[in-house]
Structure formats: C-alpha cells, structure tokens
Amino acid sequence: MAIIPRWLRIPRPKSFLYIMSLRTGAEMISLSMIFNKITGFYGLLAILTGFHLSPLQLCMYLYSLGALVLIAFLMPHIRKQSPFQCLALAWFYLIDTVVNTAFTSAFAVTWFLAVSADESHTHIPSSAPGSGTIDDTAGFTNPKNNLSKSAGAARDAVAAAAAAGTPSVGHGVGIEESIPSLIVVVLLTLIRVYFILVMMAFARQVLRQHMYTSPSSKLQVHMDGSSDAPADDPFAIGKSGGQGWKGKLGRIMVKVGRSYWLGGQADDDWARGLHGRFRSRKLVSGPPGTLERERRARSGTGPPVPPPNLVKG
C-alpha cells in the first residue's frame, strides 16, 4: 500500500491554540458543547408556556437534550484517558458538527427567505423549514401593526410593485445586512473544523499511548522517525478492549480512518515523552569502569585469573 504524502494527511495538532495541551483543549471543547446543548433543555421548556415549535425545532431540541446526556457521560473520561470513551467522544463531535451544520443551513435558508420576503413585502414560502415560526416571531415579515397601510398612496404603489417579486435565498444573501451574518456563520464553521482536528488528535494520542504502554503490545517506535508501522488495534478480538459491544463498536470506529488512528508516526511528541520516562537518569559517578566492576562483583563474573607462568615485570 502506497504511503500517503505528508501534505495530504489529515492535520494532527500537537497542542490546543499552541499554548495548551490536547487534553486541556478537549476538556474546554467538551465544556463548550455542554453549554451549547443546554439550550435544548430550555427550548423544550418553552412548550410549557404554550409556545408553538415547528417539527424542525422540536427535533433539534430533543437531539440537543440527548447529546447533553452523552457528553456529560463521556467528558470525565478525558482526564482518565480511556481509549474507547475518548474515541467515541471524537467521533460524536464530528457527527454533531455535521448535524449542527445541517440545522444551521436549514434555518439560514429560512432566515434569508424571511429577509427577502421582507424586502418584497410577501410571506415566507410555506415549504421552507420552520417558516411558520419565523413568520410569526420575526417581527418584520408579518407584523401585527402594519404601518405600511397608513402610509401614502405612493408607498402603497411601491409595496404593490415589490410584492410581485418572489422571495429567494439568493436575493436574501445579496442584501447588504445579510453579509455580516453569513461571514459569522463561515467563521464559526472554520473554528468548529479546527476543534474537530483537536478532538481527533487527542483521541489518537490516547489510543497510541495506550498501545505503547500495553504489556502485550508489539508496537515498536523508532525515535529516528524511520518507522511507519501501524499500531495494534486496541479493540481487536482477544484483547481486553475488544470484548462485548464496546469491542465491536471500537473496531468500527477504528476501521474508518484506520491509517489515521493506528498509522505509524514515530515523531509524535507523546512517544518522545513516554520513551524518556523509561530512560535511566542515574548519573555515573566515580572513575570509568566503576559500575562495570560492581556489576561483575555482584554476579561473580570478575576478570579471568592470570596464568601461573605469568612473570611480573
């Protein structure tokens, strides 16, 4: 199998924002997810006040509530550095990003349609997701007190002419006031992508660190960077982590992107730091050969006895 060029590989951050460790970054990212998902709980409380939720909003709030429970369960394992839980958290963050992007895109489309409808003095198309809720709560697409009716005849004529147009996403995006909102959405999406790389890099670090310290592991890491051999699968059948449903799910998670999770990268900082722990830091004291003579004296393998015919000079 051909080796993927380094510039084509998925970026592997070695720190969070270049000032914190990956573990600290994973904890901060997970904490931000918890604050983000709490909105789902408060969104469901709005039903008790009689507020009408669209099916899309209800799905989003229910998903946020389930995600909140899952994150609260997985987050403590970041400090414990549990391989299965950390890998599951990285995958869930990736899936959550895709789901959130889908929800954001749906609401963004409806919002731009609302802005376009306001410009053309029409209603939001009913086919838009969540159009009914936005049309009722936006405040400008269908206001209760329509002041345009009390305007002059010229204002009515302009409104009638504009009403002939049909709201569209392109028209809503092209409005000057919509450009800052679009820029903010793009920037937040890029930040989210960076957070994905951090979570995946931390999970990869935990996996390889676990395999490197495992007594039964056959992983051999050469610190000169010449080895690119894959690590053993910690969820393989027969290993402690490969038992039960966790083992099956772990093998599925590792199988997707196996070269990333288990691919050999001997220049990782975790390997250098871990390798240094097993190096002897005992300083050599005394004249050269002192430690060797002590070792031979303890084992009874001292220097050979000189032959009897040896004559001293």
UniProtKB/TrEMBL annotation:
Start-end of Pro residues biased regions: 303-313
A GO BP annotation: inositol phosphoceramide metabolic process
GO molecular-function terms, A-Z: inositol phosphoceramide synthase regulator activity
Transmembrane spans: 55-75, 87-113, 182-203
PANTHER family (UniProt xref): INOSITOL PHOSPHORYLCERAMIDE SYNTHASE REGULATORY SUBUNIT KEI1 (PTHR28077:SF1)
Species per Swiss-Prot/TrEMBL record: Amorphotheca resinae ATCC 22711
InterPro entries, alphabetized: Kei1
One GO cellular component term: inositol phosphoceramide synthase complex
Assigned keywords, A-Z: Membrane, Transmembrane, Transmembrane helix
Superkingdom as given in the UniProt entry: Eukaryota
Region (Disordered): 280-313
Name of the protein in its database record: DUF1753-domain-containing protein
